[in-house]
Structures are given as C-alpha cells and as structure tokens.
Amino acid sequence: MSKILVVFGATGNQGGSVIRSVLADPKLSKEFKIRGVTRDPSKPAAQKLAEQGVDVVKADLLDKGTLRNALIGAHSVFAVTNYWEKASKEIEVTQGKNISDVSKEIGVEHLIWSSLPNVTKLTDGKLSNVPHFDGKAEVEEYINALGVPATFFLAGFYMQNLKSAIKLGEDGKKTLAFTFPGDTEIPLFEASADTGKFIAAILSSDYAKPRGKQVLGASGWFTPNEIITTFEEVTGQPAKYVQLPEEVFRGFLPEAFATEMLENFALIRDYQYYGPNAKESLEESLKILNQPPTSFKEFVQRNGPWE
C-alpha cells in the first residue's frame, strides 16, 4: 500500500514542483500517494492536479482542525508557507507551528520544512529586518525542539525575481540594478523547476532517514556580471549591470518593504546568503540530486520573450 505524501502549496512554485517531480519518478510515484493541500480545490490548477491522481484537499494553516484532516495518515510532508500573502512574521510562524504540532500529534515520520537562514542570528543583529527569512528559521527551531523527524530545505534567490528585475533602461539597454558590486555571488534557484528535484532526492536518499539536516537549494553561484553576459548571449539584447546606492534603490521600493529588501541584499553581499561555509554546504546538497539543476542560461532560454 502506498504511503501518503502531503504537499502544502500544491499549486504554488515549490509545492507544484514537488508534485510534478514525485509523479514523474518511477520509484517515488509507486511509493507515495500524493495529497495536495490548497486553499481552493475548485481552482483550475487544483482541478488539473486532481485529474493527475492527486488527492486535493482544502486546509487553513491557522486552523488545526483542517490541518488534522489534511495530514491524517500522512507518512511524509512537504510544508511551505507564503510570507508575502499576509506580510506578517507572526502569522507565518503560527502557520508553521500549527503544521508542526499536528505532524507531531499524528506521528508524521518525515516533515520536510521549507526554511531559510535566521538573518538576525547569523549577522549578530546587524541585519534584523528580514522577517520573511527569520520566521521560517524560527519554525525550523521549533520543529527541532518538538522532536518531529525533519529535513530542512533552504531555497536560494529565485531566478524568477530576475524576470521582473531586468528592465529596459533609458539608454535602450536592458538593465539589472542591485546595491552590491557586480562580482557578488548569488545562489540562484529555479523554484518551479528544481524544488521537486531536491525534495525527490531527499525522499529517495539517505535523507529519507530524517536527522534534522539542512539541504540548500540552488543551481550554483552567479554574479550580476555573469547574469548580464548570459542574458546578452541568449537573447541578443544589449544589457548592463548597475550598482545603485542604497538610498537611490530605496526610492524604487514600497516603503513598507524597503528596509527588508535592502537588508536582504546586504545578506547576499556580506554573508553569502546562507552564512558560513555556504559554498561547501551547497556543493554537498547538489551531490544528492539525481537530475542536474537548472542553469541561468536554461532559465533565460525557457522564459522568454524578455520584452
């Protein structure tokens, strides 16, 4: 009899990728029956999953009763929350703790939590305004303290963000602008294509024996200069990178999120996004993959036109 794998955010970038990868894997598709959790099972994306054999269920992450219904009988769980839906760390932490509590209560054997570094702790308080990272990290700490068997997946900088970040400049060139130097290394990640590759590897490797380990999710390290060079090669469009002063960049951002975004850039510049030993840790994480991750060149090729 197949074990039940519950996937939260079933129609989103990460959850959707997990479902596609497990369904496509000859071994995992037989080992697991997928239950996809979404807020609205009637939406076309959810209905499409149901047509593929996914048991689509509705749950409210702030309601433990609906979470019990979603998780009952689950062997493994992939859990991801969306900070930007409410832009509240308190709400996101409560959602994560609720999933953790119910997982503990019903005896889930493997909880894979989509986490991120605790920026405040990592930087000794120098960068204390990145709640969309810190909240997920707090839930990771809670899961460990609760004793739920778990693996933690830490996604890198979304390549999808570059789709909106590369804009046409007044000089007619496509322009990418951040606040750090052009040789700063960024751990780029194609969430919709590659989350599933990592989670499938976790489910089918030694990580299936959960011991609280972290798996970093990125294709590798890419600098803005390399991003622009690749963009020009693939699209044939002239492009450039511009390092902007923080106060200038702040003027382009909504005030409510400006400090958070600028500190996020500082995390990339000064702490390699993941903190100490980031390169070595990512190298170890990439070794578990059964399929190569998406390069930025492939992302540009697949996501045109870049108008």
How would you describe this protein?
- The chain has 307 residues and is an alpha/beta fold.
- It has one domain (3-302): NAD(P)-binding Rossmann-like Domain (Rossmann fold, 3-Layer(aba) Sandwich), CATH 3.40.50.
- 47% of the residues lie in helices and 20% in strands.
- It has helices at 13-24, 28-31, 44-51, 64-71, 83-86, 89-106, 119-122, 131-146, 160-165, 191-204, 224-235, 246-250, 255-271, 278-286, 296-302; strands at 3-8, 32-38, 55-58, 74-79, 110-115, 150-155, 157-158, 167-168, 174-178, 186-189, 214-217, 220-222, 239-243.
- The protein has a seven-stranded parallel β-sheet with strand order 3-2-1-4-5-6-11, sandwiched between helices.
- The longest helix has 18 residues, at 89-106.
- The radius of gyration is 20 Å and the shape is globular.
- The mean pLDDT is 96.
Mean pLDDT figure: 96
Note the main sheet: 7 strands, parallel
The CATH superfamily turns out to be NAD(P)-binding Rossmann-like Domain
Q: What is the end-to-end distance? A: 49 Å
**Protein structure class:** alpha/beta
Strand order of the largest sheet: 3-2-1-4-5-6-11
Globally, the shape reads: globular
**Total domain units:** 1
Low-confidence stretches: none
β-strand number: 13
